[in-house]
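Retro notes
What went well: the complex prediction finally ran end to end.
Inputs used:
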Amino acid sequence: MSETGDIADLYSMTLRDLARDPAHKGRPEAFDATARGDNPMCGDRVDIYVTLDGDRIREARHVARGCEICQASASLLAELVPGRTQAEAHALGQRAGEIAKSGAGNDTTDELHRLSIFAVVHKFPSRVKCVTLAWNALDAALSGVKETSSE
Amino acid sequence: MSETGDIADLYSMTLRDLARDPAHKGRPEAFDATARGDNPMCGDRVDIYVTLDGDRIREARHVARGCEICQASASLLAELVPGRTQAEAHALGQRAGEIAKSGAGNDTTDELHRLSIFAVVHKFPSRVKCVTLAWNALDAALSGVKETSSE
Amino acid sequence: MDTIISPLFDVTRIRQDFPILSTKVHGKPLTFLDSGASAQKPRAVIEAMTRSMETAYANVHRGAYHLSEAATESYEAARIATQRFLGATEPEEIVFTSNSTAAINFVAHSYGRGVLQPGQFVLTSEMEHHANMVPWQMLRDANIGIGLRYVRVTERGELDLEDLAAKLADGKVGLVALTHMSNVLGTVTPAAQIARMAHEAGAKVLFDGSQAAVHRHVDVTAIDADFYVFTAHKLYGPTGIGVLYGKRKLLDAMPPFLGGGDMIESVTLERTTYAAAPARFEAGTPPIIEAVGLHAAIDYVTNIGMGAIEAHERALVDHAMAVLPGVEGLTLLGGAQDRGGVFAFALDGVHPHDLSTFLDRHGIAVRAGRHCAEPLHTRFGVEGGTTRASFGLYTTPEEIDLLAAKLTEARRFFA
Amino acid sequence: MDTIISPLFDVTRIRQDFPILSTKVHGKPLTFLDSGASAQKPRAVIEAMTRSMETAYANVHRGAYHLSEAATESYEAARIATQRFLGATEPEEIVFTSNSTAAINFVAHSYGRGVLQPGQFVLTSEMEHHANMVPWQMLRDANIGIGLRYVRVTERGELDLEDLAAKLADGKVGLVALTHMSNVLGTVTPAAQIARMAHEAGAKVLFDGSQAAVHRHVDVTAIDADFYVFTAHKLYGPTGIGVLYGKRKLLDAMPPFLGGGDMIESVTLERTTYAAAPARFEAGTPPIIEAVGLHAAIDYVTNIGMGAIEAHERALVDHAMAVLPGVEGLTLLGGAQDRGGVFAFALDGVHPHDLSTFLDRHGIAVRAGRHCAEPLHTRFGVEGGTTRASFGLYTTPEEIDLLAAKLTEARRFFA
Ligand SMILES: Cc1ncc(COP(=O)(O)O)c(C=O)c1O
Ligand SMILES: Cc1ncc(COP(=O)(O)O)c(C=O)c1O
């Protein structure tokens, strides 16, 4: 694999579109739970806001100060979690982390297929945290914690 | 130099006689100053007792719990310091330390000649402290300090 | 006796792994019997450190570039290797410090001041290395209401377990801090039993494994230790790195000790929040190269097998117990049933320092003094110190025979 | 521009001393621009450490045998080399610690808790590395009546000396603790002037020389520093060892920090007395192998000449100041008159982390983040972090040119 290829693989069109996608960004006026994820080493910060529908997530939005991977991950999260329970969302986050860490991304379901844009991250070990930060914040929000960290 | 020679050089007859010499040992009934020298690493301990005659030392005695070099040094101290002032005794102690450290022992005066039995100690660097402990204690006694250490 | 004690353990071949063992001292082959103070380093450790500096060095944790990623990976791999070596549940339970002393001081500060309550006691023993005594004295003397108790040591050099039980009985002991193996007597303490007694009395337990971890397989989970410390340089690894194991729950509840980079979560001028363990306890640039060396040392002893090492050392201890008491004028300190390869002794009429110099001229390295265990020497009435021979995995029975012969010669020489 | 900037300084030849500089990263030659985080090691350092482990290793201070004497001699020789390197008066003023962070924590505990009085303040700045900020915050938060003040930093990234004077004016500051060179802005602070101001106000002064000591000749006596710290791994030496310089009188008056072996004078169960400095502050087995490495590193830079290194780096700084501002969209942090080879910057539209990954694929190692100086990033409104390029004695102008070219490419890539 050429190294330019590498970089282009990481910053795929899909990822960059997700990173910029305004659809899931911004602090909503009302929400049921929120938490902040901080990566003290690099300064990345993600605020996740969730509205609930019984025990299911109705909507998720984020305000992210972070790199493109971090932003893309937060957007994908906001896209994927509506309709899921806390446990299901947590499992999805775990899966996102595994994919980023190991590169294993040959899942067949649709959502998991979406997550596979992070498979290439395993070739950039210091960037795995950029994928998981938003998911950690979601976990924290859903369990009532106010802050979390990806360190 | 053969290594047996080395050992025999260090533990010369003169040194070993001095180490055993009872003439300068034991706590006197009366004394004007005393101090204890401790080497925390090896456990050596020397108590020096001094009687004074105006600003000159009349007599010095020691109680040493230590190796042969430490004992010999304390005995030689007790032999050499009577009649000297604090400053003279200190200078002699400094000289003893230098001789033990560097091996330079070609002094011509008689007392300094006696100190030259410690010249061989410079080949045994970890033993230099054994020579200086008693002299440190003497310094401490004469300046009113109670304890000192060769570390 | 043949140098190959066990078919599993070819000591002749093992000695070739240690470059220093083929050097000469005063024209004599080196007989290194001071591994208890610090062990020699196998080529695998030296080469791992060299390789890290030549091919994969950068500061860890904060770099998004290849060398920093590589260094971080090696550093964290060392943590995982240490976790496995100690049988810990998670890598996060392993904190790298600079040595055992620092590790115990960490606990004395962070747990002692941060978690123990006024009116509680720390229980240590007369048998400890100063590293496991002075920090507790400093805690006692900090005037925050924490007391200090000592477990007595029997004539045989074992912990007096009845005394231990008695001193735990009032439930006021918050932390038991005991050695897992004495660096003077060689005594191995019954760690699992001690932990059980401590826990029943509501206390946590720290083991100083500086000696034990070198000589036997240690499993902190099986022992149920709350804290366990050891130091790499005695385990054939480099200086500059030690290990603090702490149960996750305990570490999470402890305030940090040293402040600086890498241990924070966020810093403002007014307020700082701290990272989770182990980062919270690893302020500043950690011993990166040394962690690689420790990892190589762990791999080295694990490949030989801690069981095989223990068996080899047991055979050496048996041999020493057969040979040393035959030296006229020699008195061994202690005589515990369960003991490792450390022998402190007095030789009648010969001062330890003089003896050590004499042996050195025959190439034999032993230690003279009080071995950082002054109260223990006082306990046994040898305030002036002892001479200590301690074994490593490269020690041979012939070296013990040579020691015995030279002890006899020394006695004649100094007579 | 030719790589030989000065006839005294043949950077091509110097680069050959560093094995890692000839390795490749992602198929590209390594361009290592992260020396401010940790520097690479010359062969002389690696070999000195190897040699110590292969031929002269044992624990120090306590052995009366050849290897221990040899190891002790090397360890103490490193202390003397460090003394000379810093221009200290006596070797006893040099305490070996595990890094700069530990050295500052030592002062915060031993001097901060042991000597400073309730009602006094520590004065640090907004510009500090967390290592010189968090320990003082912890001291402030220990509820012993010691306050904390911060000197402001100007837009240009220099210490505001008027603010410094104002904050010293009431005579309540007991200790001024400031960096001698910023690890983010490159700013070199006027140490001698600061020391004079501090002393006139009755305060002692500590300088964090972690960056400065690498880039220029430091003379603690000329500056009249009371404490000065640096860390070996940034000076081309190993990890695991740092240096605390303290004036003899101050060290002698300070209580110990860590308890254990080697720092005591006598230990009984009831009472312990402590050794004199520096032993009092070096509890446990010290970084023996690392001291040898530090010594080799000091010899290495001294042989090249700190003056020559400073001149080389000044030329690099001039080159960078000519080239970097030409990169479209690039904003440099700070612009001090007196600065060393550290450049933190923002590149419009490109996140530092993404940038760092991009550069890495071109073999260029830079650091992204807040560089353990979060308040400083807040001060400059770049909470999200910056990208930092920092130079070593092996850095070439061509490497800076390559960086500039790839920054422009990155901006296009991420547009
Ligand atoms: C200015 C400054 N101070 C302190 C430190 C801390 O050094 P260490 O991590 O070696 O303790 C650093 C480097 O990280 C630094 O740049
Ligand atoms: C039993 C014991 N505890 C603690 C220590 C201290 O280890 P370190 O000096 O590496 O901190 C030692 C060795 O010196 C030891 O033998």
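What we learned: The radius of gyration of chain A is 14 Å.
What to try next: split runs per interface for comparison.
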